[in-house]
């Protein structure tokens, strides 16, 4: 573990309810630079909501979030963060979704350069150069001019990853990015994630690919009812689970 300066994001006691349904009940996680963290847990345990709180697609009702120089104390927040604040936050915390969310009427390249041009103010030429490097990185250098509907699910997801990388975020969140794919397409996306991890990309992944999570992660968190029931190294959490609940959860995936 590095110094405090190496903390990219710190979430403390995050709380979020929808109506009377408390989905996050005090979830805490601190992410070091270059760390890879996987979050596992049953459907409905709050994994997606937690990720969405980290880039404030959902605004928590309690707890604190520190990202770089910015600290948000949600129990004291009197009004929602301004759009400019949210834009700054989301530039630093990228997200890739289960269902890709590509712009259907833009080519792969146009999807990738949109953010760098519109938000980062890069020149179209610069953005396209970087975009091509990113397409090479995800193995799609020959797909720049294809539209999403012309691509397979695995290819779409790799474009979505390239699009997130193009913003050069401090941290990227991946929410079950292989869950919607046909089984034969899962491997090509996992390979890209593994390469990113090896390059030192700071990332949090929600995944049901337990063996993969154990392989690439520095730490694994097991979420139960909106809080981390276990959080530690893969050796601890996946190979030496403490709770009966985690033992039973892992049995379903092996
Ligand atoms: P997971 O990703 O672990 O499957 P989610 O975070 O998606 O879990 O959901 C946790 C719980 O929160 C579920 O019961 C879900 O129905 C509920 N939930 C999530 N988003 C909303 C929302 N926007 N409005 C109401 N309930 C929601
Ligand atoms: Mg989810």
UniProtKB/TrEMBL annotation:
InterPro entries per UniProt: AAA+_ATPase, ABC_ATPase_HisP-typ, ABC_transporter-like_ATP-bd, ABC_transporter-like_CS, MetN_ABC_transporter-like, P-loop_NTPase
Pfam families linked to this entry: ABC_tran
Keyword Magnesium set for record: no
UniProt subcellular location: Cell membrane
PROSITE patterns documented for this protein: ABC_TRANSPORTER_1 (PS00211), ABC_TRANSPORTER_2 (PS50893)
Source superkingdom: Bacteria
Keywords: ATP-binding, Cell membrane, Membrane, Nucleotide-binding, Transport
Membrane topology per record: Peripheral membrane protein
Any single GO CC term annotated in Swiss-Prot or TrEMBL for this entry: plasma membrane
Single Gene Ontology MF annotation: ABC-type amino acid transporter activity
SMART domains named in the record: AAA (SM00382)
Domain ABC transporter: 9-250
Family: Belongs to the ABC transporter superfamily.
PANTHER family: AMINO ACID IMPORT ATP-BINDING PROTEIN, L-CYSTINE IMPORT ATP-BINDING PROTEIN TCYN
Name under which the protein is recorded: Amino acid ABC transporter ATP-binding protein
Record organism: Acuticoccus mangrovi
């Amino acid at each position: 573990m590095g110094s405090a300066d190496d903390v990219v994001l710190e979430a403390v006691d995050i709380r979020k309810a929808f109506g009377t349904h408390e989905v996050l009940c005090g979830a805490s996680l601190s992410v070091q630079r270059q760390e890879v963290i996987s979050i596992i847990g049953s459907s409905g345990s709050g994994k997606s909501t937690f990720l969405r709180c980290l880039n404030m697609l959902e605004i928590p009702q309690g707890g604190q979030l520190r990202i770089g120089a910015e600290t948000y104390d949600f129990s004291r927040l009197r009004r929602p963060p301004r759009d400019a604040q949210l834009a700054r936050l989301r530039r630093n915390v990228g997200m890739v979704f289960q269902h890709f969310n590509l712009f259907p009427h833009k080519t792969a390249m146009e999807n990738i350069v949109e953010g760098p041009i519109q938000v980062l103010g890069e020149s179209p030429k610069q953005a396209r150069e970087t975009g091509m490097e990113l397409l090479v990185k995800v193995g799609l250098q020959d797909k720049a001019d294809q539209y999403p509907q012309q691509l397979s699910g695995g290819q779409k997801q790799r474009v979505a990853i390239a699009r997130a990388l193009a913003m050069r975020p401090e941290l990227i969140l991946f929410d079950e990015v292989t869950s919607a794919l046909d089984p034969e397409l899962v491997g090509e996306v996992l390979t890209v994630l593994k390469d990113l991890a090896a390059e030192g990309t700071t990332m949090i992944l929600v995944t049901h690919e337990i063996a993969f999570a154990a392989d690439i992660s520095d730490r694994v968190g097991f979420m139960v009812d909106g809080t981390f029931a276990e959080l530690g190294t893969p050796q601890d959490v996946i190979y030496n689970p403490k709770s009966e609940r985690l033992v039973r959860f892992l049995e379903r995936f092996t």
